[in-house]
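Mods, move this if it's the wrong board.
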Amino acid sequence: MPFYGAEAGVEAVREFLQTGAVGSNTYNQELAVLRADRGITTAELPDVAQFETFYPREFQSRQYPHLSIVYLSDTAEQERNSRMVNLAIELRLTVLDLSVAGSEVQMGEAMCRYRDALTKLFFRRLQGGQGWTLNNGGTGDAQGRIILAKIEANTLTFDPELQANTANMLLRTALLVRIQEDYKS
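Not the wrong board. Structure tokens:
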């Protein structure tokens, strides 16, 4: 049975960020590279402690930094008989003030670094580890079916209620993931 794969798209994004592929970094490995380049430690830029899919747990999580990968919507078929749809998937990286050493300024700087490491992953062009195809869709249902994956926008969100006495922050990254119908079924 052919399917267009909202679930497959979310899983491909999770695998791309959390597991990586042969010869390519995961998100946490890319953060480690950035720390080494900048001469900083995990105190200033901690690894993502938890990756979750489908539900934006954000401040309900028990581990931080926390990354939710959430399917939002999709489009109609891109071109007649193309059998491709665009999925709107959002990454929500929640970082608590207590996770990052320093003041509010260092927290904002850390959020910029999280964004930079994520962007680098999507820009990379390595054999077996292309960012724009999520490593060829990973090993699950999206394998070989991701035509395009790109960052549409990054937005740093500040919640006045949550920031009453702390600099908790949320980085929202809008992704466009174009997936093709599964022809095998």
